[in-house]
Amino acid sequence: MNWYLNVLRNYAVFSGRTRRKEFWMFLLFNLIFSIAASIIDNVLGTTFTIFGNEADFGPVYILYCIALFIPELAVNVRRLHDVGKSGWWILICFVPIIGSVWLLVLFCTEGNAGDNAYGSDPKAE
User: Fold this and answer.
1) In terms of residue numbers, what domain contains 90?
2) Could you give the number of structural domains in the chain?
3) What are the C-alpha distances in Å from 93 to residues 63, 82, 86, 102, 119?
4) In a domain? residue 119
């Protein structure tokens, strides 16, 4: 849980580096809270109807996603910095299929040992 809170404390910090553990733990808790928000929408009966079909989400889920958009983008950029890539590499996800796969590979790759152009090694701290 501390990893999730650490990302929220660094709400819009796009500089520096993030370890794999912090990144994946944030994504895990983000997934858990997203599912919880969707369940709350379903229990309250506030889900949306889209094109005549009932969606599994509503305003609680949407507000959660909006609130976490900037911190999630920031942790993604910091994770790319840890592997020595610019934050602009996040845009590769718009290349169909191969872009998302390559981004996943970058997120799973171990960070550069020692200092790099984006900051000091977070494992050394």
Assistant:
1) 2-108
2) 1
3) 24, 18, 14, 8, 24
4) no
pTM equals 0.89
Let me know if residue 96 belongs to a domain. yes
Sequential DSSP letters for 63-95:
HHHHHHHHHHHHHHHHHHHHTT--GGGGGGGGS
Dig out the tokens for 50 from the structure. 């889209």
Torsion of CA 115, 28, 92, 58, to 10 degrees: -140
Q: Which of 89, 86, 91 is nearest to 118 (CA)?
A: 86
- DSSP-derived secondary structure for 34-53: HHHHHHHHHHHT---EETTE
Distance (Å, whole) CA 60 – CA 10: 23
- Tens of pLDDT, residue by residue over 59-103, are 999 999 999 999 999 999 999 999 999 999 999 999 999 999 999
Residue 93: inside a domain = yes
Reduced DSSP (H G I as helix, E B as strand, rest coil) percent helix, strand, coil of the chain, to 5? 60, 5, 35
Structure tokens at 97: 């299929």
